[in-house]
Design goal:
Helices cover 50% and strands 15% of the residues. The chain contains ten helices and ten strands. Keywords: Signal, Transport.
Length: 317
Amino acid sequence: MQRIYLFVALFFLMMSCACQQDPQRENNNARNKQTPVVVVVNYPLEFIVEFLVGPEIRVINPVSPDADPETWLPNDAMIQTIQESDLIITNGADFADWVKKLSLPRSKVLRTSLYLKDSLITVPDFEVHSHGAKGAHSHAGTVAFFWLDPALMIKQAEAVAQKLMVLFPQEKKTVTVNLKKLKGSLEVLKQKLDQLKTEYAGLQWFSQRPVYQYLARRADWSVHHLHWKRHLNPDDNDWKKLKKVQEEHQIPFMLWEQKPDEKLVKELQQRGVASIVFDPLTVKPVQGDYISEMKRQLNQLEQFLKQHSIARDTSKK
Protein backbone atom coordinates (compact mmCIF):
# COMPACT_ATOMS: atom_id res chain seq x y z
CA MET A 1 0.00 0.00 0.00
CA GLN A 2 2.88 2.34 0.81
CA ARG A 3 4.32 1.65 -2.66
CA ILE A 4 1.04 2.68 -4.30
CA TYR A 5 1.01 5.91 -2.32
CA LEU A 6 4.67 6.51 -3.30
CA PHE A 7 3.96 5.98 -7.02
CA VAL A 8 0.93 8.28 -6.84
CA ALA A 9 2.98 10.99 -5.11
CA LEU A 10 5.77 10.69 -7.69
CA PHE A 11 3.23 10.85 -10.52
CA PHE A 12 1.71 14.08 -9.23
CA LEU A 13 5.21 15.54 -8.60
CA MET A 14 6.26 14.81 -12.19
CA MET A 15 3.03 16.31 -13.55
CA SER A 16 3.57 19.39 -11.44
CA CYS A 17 7.12 19.84 -12.80
CA ALA A 18 5.91 19.37 -16.37
CA CYS A 19 3.22 22.01 -15.88
CA GLN A 20 5.81 24.41 -14.56
CA GLN A 21 8.24 23.77 -17.45
CA ASP A 22 5.70 24.23 -20.27
CA PRO A 23 4.79 27.82 -19.40
CA GLN A 24 8.48 28.61 -19.02
CA ARG A 25 9.17 27.20 -22.51
CA GLU A 26 6.22 29.18 -23.85
CA ASN A 27 7.53 32.33 -22.19
CA ASN A 28 10.94 31.80 -23.82
CA ASN A 29 9.32 31.32 -27.22
CA ALA A 30 7.17 34.39 -26.73
CA ARG A 31 10.24 36.39 -25.70
CA ASN A 32 12.05 35.32 -28.88
CA LYS A 33 9.06 36.31 -30.99
CA GLN A 34 8.87 39.66 -29.23
CA THR A 35 12.50 40.56 -30.02
CA PRO A 36 12.23 43.66 -32.25
CA VAL A 37 13.67 43.19 -35.74
CA VAL A 38 15.16 45.98 -37.85
CA VAL A 39 16.02 45.28 -41.51
CA VAL A 40 18.52 47.44 -43.41
CA VAL A 41 19.50 47.58 -47.10
CA ASN A 42 23.27 48.06 -46.89
CA TYR A 43 26.26 47.97 -44.57
CA PRO A 44 26.43 51.70 -43.66
CA LEU A 45 22.86 51.54 -42.33
CA GLU A 46 23.63 48.25 -40.57
CA PHE A 47 26.61 49.95 -38.91
CA ILE A 48 24.48 52.89 -37.77
CA VAL A 49 21.72 50.75 -36.22
CA GLU A 50 24.11 48.31 -34.53
CA PHE A 51 26.08 51.24 -33.11
CA LEU A 52 22.93 52.84 -31.70
CA VAL A 53 20.95 49.98 -30.19
CA GLY A 54 21.55 47.36 -27.54
CA PRO A 55 21.43 43.57 -27.93
CA GLU A 56 17.67 43.56 -27.28
CA ILE A 57 17.08 44.58 -30.91
CA ARG A 58 17.96 42.27 -33.77
CA VAL A 59 19.48 43.94 -36.84
CA ILE A 60 19.23 42.08 -40.15
CA ASN A 61 21.19 42.98 -43.24
CA PRO A 62 19.79 40.30 -45.58
CA VAL A 63 22.48 40.77 -48.24
CA SER A 64 25.36 38.29 -47.98
CA PRO A 65 28.89 39.82 -47.95
CA ASP A 66 29.69 38.36 -51.39
CA ALA A 67 26.56 39.86 -53.04
CA ASP A 68 25.94 43.32 -54.47
CA PRO A 69 23.40 45.13 -52.23
CA GLU A 70 22.33 47.31 -55.16
CA THR A 71 21.11 44.37 -57.29
CA TRP A 72 20.51 41.57 -54.72
CA LEU A 73 16.99 40.11 -54.50
CA PRO A 74 15.56 38.13 -51.53
CA ASN A 75 14.08 34.63 -51.66
CA ASP A 76 10.56 33.88 -50.40
CA ALA A 77 11.66 33.12 -46.84
CA MET A 78 13.61 36.38 -46.58
CA ILE A 79 10.71 38.34 -48.11
CA GLN A 80 8.51 37.10 -45.27
CA THR A 81 11.16 38.04 -42.68
CA ILE A 82 11.46 41.53 -44.16
CA GLN A 83 7.71 42.10 -44.29
CA GLU A 84 7.21 40.86 -40.72
CA SER A 85 10.01 43.01 -39.28
CA ASP A 86 9.29 45.98 -37.01
CA LEU A 87 11.27 48.50 -39.07
CA ILE A 88 12.77 48.54 -42.58
CA ILE A 89 15.46 51.19 -43.06
CA THR A 90 16.16 52.02 -46.69
CA ASN A 91 18.69 54.30 -48.27
CA GLY A 92 16.53 55.93 -50.91
CA ALA A 93 17.71 57.32 -54.27
CA ASP A 94 16.81 53.95 -55.84
CA PHE A 95 19.55 52.11 -53.93
CA ALA A 96 18.67 48.38 -53.64
CA ASP A 97 16.52 46.87 -56.39
CA TRP A 98 14.49 44.76 -53.96
CA VAL A 99 13.05 47.83 -52.25
CA LYS A 100 11.46 48.89 -55.54
CA LYS A 101 10.19 45.39 -56.37
CA LEU A 102 8.70 44.29 -53.04
CA SER A 103 5.40 45.42 -51.60
CA LEU A 104 6.58 46.86 -48.27
CA PRO A 105 4.25 48.16 -45.53
CA ARG A 106 4.74 51.93 -45.68
CA SER A 107 4.25 52.37 -41.96
CA LYS A 108 7.35 50.24 -41.33
CA VAL A 109 9.69 51.93 -43.85
CA LEU A 110 12.17 54.68 -42.97
CA ARG A 111 13.70 56.19 -46.12
CA THR A 112 16.79 58.09 -44.97
CA SER A 113 17.14 60.12 -48.18
CA LEU A 114 14.03 62.08 -47.16
CA TYR A 115 16.10 63.67 -44.40
CA LEU A 116 18.79 64.77 -46.88
CA LYS A 117 16.59 66.50 -49.45
CA ASP A 118 18.58 69.73 -49.51
CA SER A 119 21.88 67.86 -49.91
CA LEU A 120 21.09 65.37 -52.68
CA ILE A 121 23.14 65.39 -55.87
CA THR A 122 21.44 64.60 -59.18
CA VAL A 123 23.58 63.58 -62.14
CA PRO A 124 22.05 64.38 -65.55
CA ASP A 125 23.80 61.52 -67.35
CA PHE A 126 23.63 59.02 -64.51
CA GLU A 127 23.31 55.99 -66.77
CA VAL A 128 23.69 55.58 -70.52
CA HIS A 129 21.58 53.01 -72.37
CA SER A 130 21.29 51.96 -75.96
CA HIS A 131 17.88 50.82 -77.23
CA GLY A 132 18.16 49.40 -80.75
CA ALA A 133 17.98 51.84 -83.62
CA LYS A 134 17.20 54.75 -81.29
CA GLY A 135 20.85 54.87 -80.26
CA ALA A 136 22.33 55.79 -76.89
CA HIS A 137 20.67 58.12 -74.45
CA SER A 138 21.09 58.96 -70.80
CA HIS A 139 18.89 59.11 -67.70
CA ALA A 140 19.15 61.52 -64.82
CA GLY A 141 19.44 60.03 -61.35
CA THR A 142 20.24 60.80 -57.73
CA VAL A 143 23.59 59.62 -56.41
CA ALA A 144 22.88 57.23 -53.53
CA PHE A 145 26.21 56.98 -51.68
CA PHE A 146 25.40 59.60 -49.02
CA TRP A 147 27.53 58.02 -46.30
CA LEU A 148 30.78 58.89 -48.11
CA ASP A 149 30.26 62.38 -46.73
CA PRO A 150 30.41 61.90 -42.92
CA ALA A 151 28.29 65.03 -42.44
CA LEU A 152 25.45 63.37 -44.36
CA MET A 153 25.94 60.12 -42.46
CA ILE A 154 25.40 62.12 -39.27
CA LYS A 155 22.01 63.21 -40.66
CA GLN A 156 21.19 59.61 -41.56
CA ALA A 157 22.14 58.51 -38.03
CA GLU A 158 19.97 61.23 -36.49
CA ALA A 159 16.97 60.16 -38.58
CA VAL A 160 17.49 56.51 -37.63
CA ALA A 161 17.94 57.37 -33.94
CA GLN A 162 14.74 59.42 -33.88
CA LYS A 163 12.74 56.56 -35.40
CA LEU A 164 14.26 53.95 -33.07
CA MET A 165 13.38 55.99 -29.99
CA VAL A 166 9.77 56.36 -31.13
CA LEU A 167 9.36 52.65 -31.91
CA PHE A 168 11.36 51.34 -28.96
CA PRO A 169 11.11 53.89 -26.13
CA GLN A 170 12.85 51.48 -23.78
CA GLU A 171 15.99 52.01 -25.88
CA LYS A 172 15.88 55.82 -25.69
CA LYS A 173 18.71 56.24 -23.20
CA THR A 174 20.99 53.77 -24.99
CA VAL A 175 20.31 55.32 -28.39
CA THR A 176 20.86 58.87 -27.09
CA VAL A 177 24.22 58.02 -25.54
CA ASN A 178 25.40 56.02 -28.55
CA LEU A 179 24.29 58.65 -31.06
CA LYS A 180 26.52 61.19 -29.33
CA LYS A 181 29.49 58.80 -29.58
CA LEU A 182 28.78 58.03 -33.22
CA LYS A 183 28.50 61.70 -34.14
CA GLY A 184 31.85 62.33 -32.43
CA SER A 185 33.55 59.63 -34.53
CA LEU A 186 31.94 60.90 -37.74
CA GLU A 187 32.98 64.45 -36.91
CA VAL A 188 36.63 63.30 -36.88
CA LEU A 189 36.20 61.90 -40.41
CA LYS A 190 34.54 65.12 -41.55
CA GLN A 191 37.48 67.13 -40.19
CA LYS A 192 39.88 64.91 -42.15
CA LEU A 193 38.01 65.63 -45.38
CA ASP A 194 37.94 69.34 -44.55
CA GLN A 195 41.73 69.16 -44.12
CA LEU A 196 42.07 67.56 -47.57
CA LYS A 197 39.87 70.32 -48.94
CA THR A 198 42.23 72.94 -47.51
CA GLU A 199 45.32 71.25 -48.93
CA TYR A 200 44.01 69.89 -52.25
CA ALA A 201 40.92 71.89 -53.24
CA GLY A 202 39.83 71.92 -56.87
CA LEU A 203 41.11 68.46 -57.84
CA GLN A 204 39.45 66.57 -60.68
CA TRP A 205 38.95 62.80 -60.73
CA PHE A 206 37.68 60.06 -62.98
CA SER A 207 35.41 57.27 -61.75
CA GLN A 208 33.61 54.43 -63.52
CA ARG A 209 30.15 55.57 -62.40
CA PRO A 210 28.55 58.15 -60.08
CA VAL A 211 29.69 57.03 -56.63
CA TYR A 212 32.01 59.64 -55.11
CA GLN A 213 30.05 62.87 -55.65
CA TYR A 214 29.27 63.47 -51.95
CA LEU A 215 32.85 62.74 -50.89
CA ALA A 216 34.12 65.03 -53.67
CA ARG A 217 31.77 67.88 -52.76
CA ARG A 218 32.94 67.76 -49.14
CA ALA A 219 36.57 68.10 -50.36
CA ASP A 220 35.76 70.66 -53.09
CA TRP A 221 36.66 68.21 -55.88
CA SER A 222 34.82 67.24 -59.05
CA VAL A 223 34.31 63.74 -60.48
CA HIS A 224 33.82 62.82 -64.14
CA HIS A 225 32.24 59.38 -64.46
CA LEU A 226 33.16 57.42 -67.55
CA HIS A 227 30.21 54.99 -67.74
CA TRP A 228 32.68 52.11 -67.85
CA LYS A 229 30.95 48.83 -67.08
CA ARG A 230 32.02 47.19 -63.86
CA HIS A 231 33.89 43.89 -64.16
CA LEU A 232 34.60 44.59 -67.86
CA ASN A 233 37.70 46.12 -69.42
CA PRO A 234 37.14 49.34 -71.37
CA ASP A 235 36.81 48.96 -75.15
CA ASP A 236 38.14 51.28 -77.90
CA ASN A 237 35.15 53.61 -77.59
CA ASP A 238 35.73 53.90 -73.84
CA TRP A 239 39.35 54.92 -74.39
CA LYS A 240 38.31 57.45 -77.04
CA LYS A 241 35.89 59.07 -74.59
CA LEU A 242 38.55 59.23 -71.90
CA LYS A 243 40.98 60.82 -74.36
CA LYS A 244 38.39 63.43 -75.33
CA VAL A 245 37.76 64.36 -71.68
CA GLN A 246 41.51 64.41 -71.00
CA GLU A 247 42.12 66.83 -73.86
CA GLU A 248 39.60 69.21 -72.33
CA HIS A 249 40.22 68.83 -68.58
CA GLN A 250 43.61 67.11 -68.02
CA ILE A 251 42.29 64.96 -65.17
CA PRO A 252 45.19 63.34 -63.27
CA PHE A 253 43.49 60.76 -61.00
CA MET A 254 40.95 57.94 -61.02
CA LEU A 255 39.01 56.48 -58.08
CA TRP A 256 38.17 52.77 -58.19
CA GLU A 257 35.60 50.89 -56.10
CA GLN A 258 37.67 47.71 -56.32
CA LYS A 259 41.27 46.97 -57.25
CA PRO A 260 41.57 47.18 -61.05
CA ASP A 261 43.65 44.92 -63.28
CA GLU A 262 47.33 45.89 -63.22
CA LYS A 263 47.41 46.12 -67.01
CA LEU A 264 44.58 48.65 -66.86
CA VAL A 265 46.41 50.69 -64.20
CA LYS A 266 49.52 50.87 -66.44
CA GLU A 267 47.42 51.85 -69.46
CA LEU A 268 45.95 54.72 -67.47
CA GLN A 269 49.39 55.77 -66.24
CA GLN A 270 50.56 56.04 -69.84
CA ARG A 271 47.63 58.40 -70.41
CA GLY A 272 48.58 60.53 -67.40
CA VAL A 273 46.06 59.11 -64.96
CA ALA A 274 47.09 57.66 -61.57
CA SER A 275 44.73 55.16 -59.87
CA ILE A 276 43.67 54.62 -56.27
CA VAL A 277 41.07 52.30 -54.74
CA PHE A 278 38.47 53.83 -52.41
CA ASP A 279 35.97 51.22 -51.28
CA PRO A 280 32.51 52.85 -50.95
CA LEU A 281 31.73 50.34 -48.16
CA THR A 282 28.34 49.19 -49.40
CA VAL A 283 29.22 45.83 -47.83
CA LYS A 284 30.94 45.09 -44.53
CA PRO A 285 34.74 45.24 -44.79
CA VAL A 286 36.78 42.12 -44.08
CA GLN A 287 38.54 43.95 -41.24
CA GLY A 288 37.38 46.79 -39.04
CA ASP A 289 34.17 48.74 -39.49
CA TYR A 290 32.90 51.86 -41.26
CA ILE A 291 34.79 54.28 -38.98
CA SER A 292 38.15 52.47 -39.02
CA GLU A 293 37.99 51.78 -42.78
CA MET A 294 37.06 55.34 -43.67
CA LYS A 295 39.94 56.56 -41.49
CA ARG A 296 42.37 54.18 -43.17
CA GLN A 297 41.18 55.08 -46.66
CA LEU A 298 41.27 58.83 -46.05
CA ASN A 299 44.82 58.54 -44.70
CA GLN A 300 45.75 56.44 -47.73
CA LEU A 301 44.17 59.05 -50.00
CA GLU A 302 46.18 61.77 -48.30
CA GLN A 303 49.44 59.87 -48.85
CA PHE A 304 48.52 59.25 -52.48
CA LEU A 305 47.93 62.97 -53.05
CA LYS A 306 51.15 63.94 -51.29
CA GLN A 307 53.18 61.58 -53.49
CA HIS A 308 51.54 62.67 -56.70
CA SER A 309 51.61 66.37 -55.92
CA ILE A 310 55.39 66.05 -55.46
CA ALA A 311 55.61 64.19 -58.77
CA ARG A 312 53.57 66.88 -60.53
CA ASP A 313 55.65 69.67 -59.01
CA THR A 314 58.84 67.93 -60.17
CA SER A 315 57.50 67.51 -63.69
CA LYS A 316 56.78 71.25 -63.93
CA LYS A 317 60.39 72.22 -63.20
